[in-house]
Design a protein that fits this description.
Elements: E1 2-7, E2 10-13, E3 18-20, H1 21-24, E4 25-28, H2 34-38, E5 41-44, E6 50-56, H3 57-67, E7 72-75, E8 80-86, H4 94-122, H5 125-137, H6 148-163, E9 165-166, E10 169-170, H7 177-200
Parallel strand pairs: 1-7, 2-8
Antiparallel strand pairs: 1-4, 3-5, 6-8, 9-10
């Protein structure tokens, strides 16, 4: 009998000690009722409030073959599954969340402003603006403010196009650079946690 499993990369569990196959993998089989496979226990979380654990594809295969000894199991997904367990229920504090959002917004605002001004200083943008003003108007001016209007508009449009967002609306279906970086960061975190869990058994 053929059984196909598709383990996921990571799951988060709260207030649940017994990990079943349906929690960590998709299952398909024509020869065995899928619900019987899905309800097989793979792992039991120790009595701790928090922990990170690793389940390998071998553990899933062993659990299935203990129930169906003549099964031919094909793994189509991940080799290891990371389980993040937390028994504590986090209470939502609206005031704390509002203060946190405001603080992060201020840091981002002033940090971005500082970065743009530093770039302008290093790139000698004021001198470039003077050169453009002389090119278009054939006269020199110490502070050609009129050149800053199209520059500011172009900078704003460029940022919107680059980050693919205007408010909550996406301009295209492509992921934004921040989403790409966050995905890369999350993959690196999972890889590190798997390595740590492999060395210690749990982290």
């Amino acid at each position: 009998m053929d059984i196909y499993i598709l383990p996921v990369k990571k799951i988060s569990v709260k207030d649940k000690k017994l990990i079943l196959i349906k929690d960590i993998a998709e299952v398909f089989s024509k020869d065995v009722p899928v619900d019987k496979i899905q309800n097989i226990q793979v792992f039991k979380i120790p009595d701790k409030e928090y922990g990170i654990y690793k389940i390998s594809a071998i553990d899933i295969i062993k659990a299935i073959t203990n129930q169906f000894s003549d099964a031919n199991i094909n793994n189509l997904g991940e080799q290891d599954v990371l389980i993040q367990y937390d028994s504590k229920k986090k209470k939502s504090n609206k005031l704390y969340n509002a203060v946190k959002v405001a603080a992060i917004s201020l840091v981002l605002f002033f940090g971005t402003a500082t970065a743009i001004m530093s770039f302008h200083a290093d790139g000698e943008v004021p001198k470039i603006m003077k050169g453009y003003y002389k090119m278009f108007f054939n006269e020199e001016k110490e502070n050609p403010y009129i050149m800053e209007i199209p520059y500011s508009l172009g900078l704003s449009v460029g940022i919107i196009i680059f980050f693919n967002h205007f408010g909550r609306k996406m301009l295209t279906l492509d992921p934004t650079p921040i989403e790409v970086q966050m995905t890369t960061y999350e993959e690196e975190v999972i890889k590190n946690q798997l390595n740590t869990a492999s060395k210690k058994g749990e982290s």
